Every structure is written in structure tokens, then in C-alpha cells.
Amino acid sequence: MSRTSIKFEFPCQKSENVTPDLMIKLISVSVVLALLFTVPALGIFLGIYWYTDNILMGAIIGFAIHFITLGFSYTISQSISSFLDS
């Protein structure tokens, strides 16, 4: 069996232009976005479920918060990127 290696290719940049600083920024922005999208929605869902024992209301409000934050993902990403640039 032969193993094939997977190479990351960026469509707008040549691979030699990708610096470690760019990769660190990409990973850190992605981690912050993932946390901002999941933690508030899960916290609200679990809080509502534990205090009211109503899983349906917790799920609906949790999903609503999740999709609201997804709607602002571009602006959040731009602000995090500009914060890391400075």
C-alpha cells in the first residue's frame, strides 16, 4: 500500500507565500470563532434545560443564538483578524 500525502493549497496564494505567522493567525482566528459560536449557544441551552427542565425551549433558544452568531460571522472574523494584526 502506498500512502499519499495531502498538501494544503490556497487558491489565491502560492504555497511559498504562506508563512508560519499566517498559519498561526488562521488557526487562532478559527479557534476563537469556534468558541464564540458554540459556547454561548450551549451555555444558554444547558442553563434553560437545567433550570426549567424544558429541553425544547432550551434547544430552540440555543439554536437561535447559534444562528444569530453565525449571521455575524464575517464581521466577527474581520474584527478578530484586525485585533491580531495590531
Description of the molecule:
The protein is an all-alpha fold. It has one domain (19-85). The protein has 3 helices and no strands. The mean pLDDT is 84.
What is the CA-atom radius of gyration, in angstroms?
19 Å
Describe the biggest sheet?
Answer: none
Q: What percentage of residues falls in helices of 4 or more residues?
A: over 70%
Percentage beta strand: under 5%
Task: Output the structural class.
Answer: mainly alpha
Order of secondary-structure elements = HHH
Amino-to-carboxy terminus distance: 48 Å
Averaged pLDDT: 84
Number of domains: 1
- Globular, elongated, flat, extended or rod-shaped: what is the shape? elongated
Helical element count? 3
- Detail the poorly predicted runs: none
Q: Report the count of strand segments.
A: 0
Q: Which SSEs are present, and which pair or pack?
A:
Layout: H1 20-52, H2 55-71, H3 73-85
Describe what is shown at a glance.
With 86 residues, this protein is mainly α.
Index terms:
86 residues; mainly alpha; 3 helices; elongated
